[in-house]
Design goal:
Chain lengths: ~200, ~200, ~200
């Protein structure tokens, strides 16, 4: 599916930009900005491939992902003073990347014969683990563990794709629907400041 | 060995509870509590399987571990105000989990033809790496690196099992003896506040 | 190449010493010092082997690396009050280790059919990822991401080796030249306090 591949590259670029931007905010040097951009963009899919036993992972088989995230990170590094101008549109690209990564991860797990819980875990991990590694490298508690911003739309999209697979629906239609579901829920979550419950200590 | 599998599930539940509790103490949201519970319970065995090249790891082949740790983490999240009541019995379940994970990890490494040092490393890692990842995700220096609480009993149990293997002893007997050794040393260490030496800067 | 293997062991020992020293500075106990020493020495090569799909990784196939780094870490733990005396010569051993790890990582990636960008990434990762994991375990932002000290010489050495491979030069000569390049650039970088540009927030 060429549309999914285009979305995949778009998401890779958006994730690389947000990772590079995190490096700049932490006052890292050029190498730190590069590493954070690359890790955010490809970390989730790489961890998925290691866990599924499909090594070398996708990013070592197709150079496009490494080159694309390096170039994006360098561009962000050079033009970081103007980054605020693209922060808002970036949220939309980021949501598309999130949905696409969920679909690719879930689909790959299904292809490897995974059960429901494993397929959803792999889908969510593909979309979110890069950001978790970025935050660990930045010496922060990963954002996703503290404030719900990503996981619910990812779980919904992944479950939808798995249901479509079980029902024998056309893959292209299921995939588009799952990406759209993630994007819509994600953007609504930003707009309305949705959050998961948090334990309160008494 | 059905007894070992029962102990394994018991240990998984105890580790998931302690991981979830760490998430609650860090004021994480529901997803953070889930992730910390799951990672603490299955992280060590997953890392072991990746290193031994046995992918997909155990937790992606048998759904029980994922479902069990998710359910336990959710229960801890809901009833966390009452957690103190189970903190003391949990220490004993935790010790059983520690011993069982050491035995399973060491045994698997032996099965894969590992030498003594590798088998002990894999045994200790199976039992402790989940907690290390939990602490890294919580942005803390892993507890095990600062204050001896886990490693010595694990090393002792793993070495005992390896010795039993080299001497050709019955596996079931060696395994039970190794689990018991870990549990006893661990509980004595808690009671008597044992600790490894620490370097003092002059 | 026996010379390269000798350099490899020298570098392993130097990396283990610097890792153990980091554990002592963080007031870790004996186990923490051991783990930091071992992880710093073998972490990069282990991650490389996992990514290339060559598991079990080198350190589980040849016990020498594990035993050597454990012994070095214990020695540093015992004699840490005298560590300052070896800190200066250690920098030179460390540079040799850096060059050797770059060459071994790049060469292995080439052997596995990697492209230029993947080979350089694997070379740099072999030499630097151990230190990154050490810093993550110490709850610090990895040094390499904040202040350029390692990456540029590694990239230069790795690119040189790859070029030698493409030009069909004798491997031994390319490897020696690449190690020498890393060592020289690294020592010059220390002497002259070279650094990569850093983004400045306005």
């Amino acid at each position: 599916m060429n549309l999914l591949y285009a979305f995949d590259l778009l998401g890779t670029a958006a994730f690389a930009a947000s990772g590079a931007w995190a490096g700049i905010r932490r006052q890292m040097d050029l190498l730190g900005v590069l590493v954070l951009g690359v890790v955010t963009a490809i970390g989730g899919g790489t961890l998925r491939d290691i866990l599924l036993g499909d090594t070398p992972p996708f990013c070592l088989q197709n150079d496009t992902y490494l080159y694309l995230s390096i170039v994006v990170a360098v561009v962000v590094f050079i033009f970081h003073r103007h980054f605020e101008h693209i922060a808002h549109p970036l949220l939309y690209l980021d949501a598309i990347g999130l949905g696409t990564f969920v679909v690719i991860g879930t689909q790959k797990a299904i292809y490897f014969g995974s059960s429901f819980i494993v397929a959803v875990t792999m889908g969510v991990m593909t979309a979110t683990a890069g950001g978790v590694i970025r935050d660990m490298l930045s010496n922060r508690v990963p954002l996703i563990l503290r404030r719900e911003i990503y996981a619910s739309p990812c779980i919904a999209g992944s479950a939808l794709l798995y249901a479509g697979h079980m029902l024998g629906l056309n893959y292209a239609i299921s995939a588009i629907a799952a990406v759209a579901l993630v994007v819509v829920v994600r953007i609504l979550a930003i707009r309305h400041n949705w959050a998961l419950p948090r334990a309160k200590k008494n």
